[in-house]
Records
---
Amino acid sequence: MAKKKTWTEKLAEAKAKTPEPHRRYCEKSRQLLLIPTVQEIEAHMRDVSRGRLTTMGQISETLRARYEVDLCCPMTTGIFAWIVAHAADEQERGGRKRVVPWWRTVKTGGELNPRYPGQGEVQRARLEAEGHRVVRKGKKLVVVDHERALLSDAVRATKKRATHGGDGSARPRKAAPARIDRRVLDRDDFGRCVLVPKTEWKWLPDEGPARVDVDGSAHRMVVQVERCNCQGNGWHEHRFLSFGRSAKIAPGQRVTILFPDRLSR
């Protein structure tokens, strides 16, 4: 019988499995989605000081804005927060003095998380010891007036800089991405595709499906990544949009591609 993994082992495994965040296009919601790392979730939870709170919604929104996507995956965010909470609780019970203050991260609306250690009761005791008032509403435990404790001045200023200029003034709206004209290539690996300049990568997922406008018609294409040392001065990436071999587009044909303006959704 295999030995059951500890929460600390599960946390280390999650960090190794997803060392970098990545973006992908979600066909179901038609949105550009961020898959965050457990390190980023852990860092947000660690930064909440005594007497303050943060919500899963705040964490997701901060990451969504940072990576300029439509949505930070709520399922991944929730799972990683769950792992961090249990690992920190396990480490504290094992004698560690300073751990991630997981009890200060609540669900949107101030609800305590029943999936955290103690099914909400441990979180309730820790929060009440720090001056919060927790009441029961049906089956839920909720922090009273949790909004007042959500952000410290420092965190509020950081969030303001993320959506405004460094001086707090409104950040000018980004212009829609320009059209690009490219000749269609026919590669053995990617099929019929076009090379995307690096300046336009921000409008695409890191890999996988993407929807773009080609010569006035909507197309579902796939982002393909190639790593090479073609110039002999170090490894770097090229990114292509692949039509696939079934596309009725001839190699050598010039096409005009317009990336969707995600800011005007």
---
Amino acid sequence: MKRGEVIEYRDERNDDFAGTGISAVEVKKEFPFCPKGLLFRIGEFIAYYLIAIPVVAFIWFAVTGFTIEGRGHVRALRRELKKSGRGFFVYANHTHWLDAFLGPLVCFPKKAHVIVSPDTVSIKGLRVIVQLLGAIPLPTERAAMPGFVGAVERRINEGRAVTIFPEAHIWPFCTFVRDFKAGSFRYPVKLGAPAVCVCVTYTKRRWYELFRKTPRRRVFVSPAMYPDASLPDPAAKQKLRDEAFEWLSGTAARYSREEFVRYVKAGSEE
């Protein structure tokens, strides 16, 4: 993607500009959403903590120049949840393939899983690797939903984090937060688990970073948000969605000042 490119969109919720070209496999009820074996656990520790985290941290901070602000909110939440031993959810905007590692870096040293599209587990030979790194794919059939939901619940009860991208699709370098449904907020409501929001913003490079062609990324983390247990589930889900959207869209509007790619709604006069 080149600086100054203009992308026309029609539907904020469904248009996808990731451009992966991957032919997605079906994720059915037989899919192992939550592997439990000892060998998997050992491989998971090696792949996640000894390989992925060091490599990704180097790419993020040394190569691309990310900064993360507000990790203290996550540390405070971890201390709060220490007694119960439970985990929490992370809701983030989706503007780059590197977003997959937002959860792991924001939540470190806590293991962070990420809910992904079926594309992520569709490349031959890589399914096990992405699962070792924490991927939980969305099912493609209703019969697989109990296994998927059970995997999310198990990871939260194990004291881990689960990252969700409510916008669902990647819009590279997008500087605003797109409208999203309340559906993905049913998990914290159902489990009575808190959530934090993470917003990736784009700003101008500092003078010593001008050799990099893309904008500087500043990542912000919100204070913890909690589902309202006094409300019926549908209302609690909508309320939590609205709180998350308000914080994400407000943060993006305040701090995203570099429009590397411009998104224009079809039919508008812009």
---
Amino acid sequence: MEVFENQTDGGNQSNSDASALLFEEACACNPQDQTTLQEAQARRQARLQELEQRQLEVTIPGGNDPAVRRRVAENPRTPQADLARLAQDTNWMVRASVAGNANTLPSDLTRLAGDRDTVVRLGVANNANTLPADLTRLAQDSWASVRGSVADNPRTLPVDLARLAGDRDGAVRSGAARNANTLPADLTRLAGDTSMFVRWEVARNPHTLPTDLTRLAEDRDPLVRFDVATNANTLSADLTRLARDSNTYVRLGAARNPNILLADLTLLAEDLDEDVRLRARDYLSRRR
């Protein structure tokens, strides 16, 4: 049963009346109207939106309450046809709920990608159904939060991630460094970023080149070095250095890496820290 149903004959009549008014407003111009054509069109458009909203409200139980429409809009079981109508709601919170719904059609997300409200565009940028072309558009949004969500989206194109890798906002660059679609060349650029959080994400990315991990193995921040120590692309030579790191967690990370040499693992099995010793000994028992 669809979420939206006409509840009474009165509701059907309201729809009929509204449709007639929509046609009249859309097609008729008052010859006595002295306003400009642009003003008349703007007035008619506002009237159209008002009547469309009235039509929508009479088809939902409690539909005159934005909170009810919002709950319907965020429900993943709401039919796509109903989400399409709610995507045109006058309430931004309802449109934002549609934008974040995993059941919303890409065509409706395309419409919402141009929404005037930032939270709505943010929902589109986060949605895994959003088309790459719309993510390209949102990658140039004036709001960093929207661009950051585009940088995190798994459907964002490498060419857009390359642009976002040079964004002025550190959180946006972190998203680009985290995305599996970011090209190794852009990860190389991000490996030298001034933000520790960006370098941290590069160190964790499974597509980071071994040469960049070698560079990050000497990073001043232990969290970056820890992620290098656990990255499957890290070279054995770098793990030898990290197995002797002054930070306990870095050494623990090295003891977990499948590329570590047996000699370095044996060294860690005698580490001063108990967690490192136990991890190294457990790994040794499975490798022998």
---
Amino acid sequence: MPYMEKYRKVTRKGQRILRHWLGHLFPPLPQPDLFPSQVILHFSHHKCLTGYYNMIMGQLGEEFNFPMQHFGSNVRRFETAVINARKKGEFSLNNTSDFDLTHFPEFRGSHFIRDPRDLIVSGYHYHLSTLEPWCITQDYPWDETTRHPYFTSYVEADLQKFPKNVSYQDYLKTLDPERGILLELIWRQFGFTAMLSWKPNPYIIEFKYETIVGNEVESFRKIFEHYEFHPKLVKRGLTLVDAFSLKNIVKGENRHARKGTSGQWKSEFTPRVTEAFKNLNGNLLIHLEYEKDNHW
């Protein structure tokens, strides 16, 4: 690693640590002034700006001394943390709608969705190289995936070749792109079910990925206004929104982001993938208002 690049990385890390402790020792705002509600909740789906949102809120949390916690898809840990929150904070959850908001303290929230077809394609490419532990562990739990009827029909018909004692990533790499995307389609079903069963709530603002990307600052301005953030929090937050935006991230070293453009599925969905998606997910795209009918 060149000396100056290593120096910049060490410097950035030091700056983050300094901001964290300054925010802890000398918070720019007293806790009661941050926002009126007790907690901020965010709901999204894997490869739907989760990393982007968490970078923004995590940095704000460090600087303004409030906790920001992301729970993946672990709804029980999420619920426990929210219900037991003793100070104002932000909590985020992915890929599920299986929770009861009536037990939560006063909150404001947001919910992001993305075209499910692009979620599949984006996830496929990401899972080929990610270092997320669940994706590279050799004891990945394959039973639920291989029991799905579409696994035999579209991914692997030979029972002797079913994946065992292999990571999700390593098995994905053995498949051609069509079968790999079909595997992602099966893997995504839990999240797609959550999309279908999501219930709108007046305290939760709804956004589509396609609306946010390319219009990040104005989109997050609306989100922060919905949260009723203090003006200082809004100002700093919007600076971070621009700094961490996709146009800047893809220029840097972040492995989590690709181009992020909408409609990538059009060049990667084969007729077989399209058939499987329509058969398996029925009116999902109509329900989410991405299509008017199933004749796409």
